Amino acid sequence: MSDTQHDTFSNRNITVLGILLLIAVFIGEVLIGPHSDEEVVVEVADTMEDIAMRIKPVVSIEDIRKNMSVASAAADAADKSPDQLYQSACLACHTTGAAGAPKIGDAGAWDQRLAKGLDALVTSAINGIGAMPPRGGSQFNDDQIKAVVEYILDESR
Ligand code: HEC
Fold first, then answer.
1. Which protein residue's CA is at the shortest distance from atom 8 of ligand 1?
2. Is 141 in the pocket of ligand 1 (CB under 6 A)?
3. Contact of 56 with 48, CB cutoff 8 Å
4. Could you report the average pLDDT of every consecutive run of 10 residues in the chain (157 residues)?
5. 146 Cβ closer than 6 Å to some ligand 1 atom
């Protein structure tokens, strides 16, 4: 092999290497290179959704509204006298005797129940008893329930 032949061979090799390199770069760019714009947009959108999920408030506006209406019902009740409380939540059953409720003013019926003690009556009014839902379906607190029970008993002597 003469020097000239050797040079030609090397040059050809370099050319082939160059072409291979170009192909490699081309494959790299097209097949495994940076994502297309569309993919990038989708990824950004995913990330935005992720962030939105993460910063989503734990308490929703609906929850707050619900709590406010419960709170305001409780605040309304706080201003009321026992007989007003009675009228707003107990009258429906205890004045009419609906669902077998002992009627207000029916001394006999209440004497019988009072035999188990005031605390027991208050407890069953709080927890519900028979057809009566807990607290008669009201938001009254324990003290208010007790005050209303006492009111009912007073009115039934
Ligand atoms: C949906 C109808 C209903 C409403 C509203 C209601 N009650 Fe009653 N209540 C009943 C019935 C029915 C009973 C009898 C339950 C039984 O003995 O099985 C009863 C029983 C009671 C008793 C007797 C519990 C016992 O241990 O014997 C008390 C005290 C009482 N109610 C208080 C109240 C008060 C105070 C309210 C209002 C905050 C109220 N109730 C609202 C239906 C009602």
1. 132
2. no
3. no
4. 60 75 69 64 72 71 72 78 96 95 97 97 98 97 97 96
5. no
